[in-house]
Specification:
121 residues; mainly alpha; Protein Binding, DinI Protein, Chain A; 3 strands
């Protein structure tokens, strides 16, 4: 085989290998690291607060009131745990929505997921 052809073949294999490595690095390391998860904590909290208030005012018995207060306690215990677990689930940094000036292509809204995690079964 001609030395020039061997050189061209080696160069092409090297370029394809380097390009594939850079593409994999971009997709598996760089892009996930740029992802930012945002949660509207105030919205989740206000919605639960409204629900608790409605249930307490509509309660006709002491058992209903106690059940509502237990639901509030459960929510207050689940919220910090859910917030702690969100970054591991999405593999991203999670910040409050109010602290982000504007959406970017790398911003993911995790408010609905947070809401699901704190709902009582």
């Amino acid at each position: 085989m001609n030395p020039r052809n061997i050189f061209i073949a080696n160069t092409l294999v090297s370029l394809i290998t380097a390009g594939g490595g850079l593409l994999a690095y971009d997709r598996l390391v760089i892009r996930p690291a740029r992802t930012i998860g945002v949660v509207d904590l105030a919205e989740v909290y206000r919605a639960k607060e409204d629900e608790f208030t409605r249930r307490l005012t509509a309660a006709h018995s002491e058992e209903e009131r106690q059940a509502t207060l237990q639901m509030a306690r459960t929510f207050s215990q689940r919220l910090p745990v859910a917030l702690e677990n969100l970054p591991a689930e999405c593999g991203c940094l999670v910040v409050l929505k109010a602290s982000v000036a504007g959406p970017t292509p790398y911003t993911v809204d995790l408010t609905a997921r947070l809401r699901q995690k704190v709902e009582t079964p």
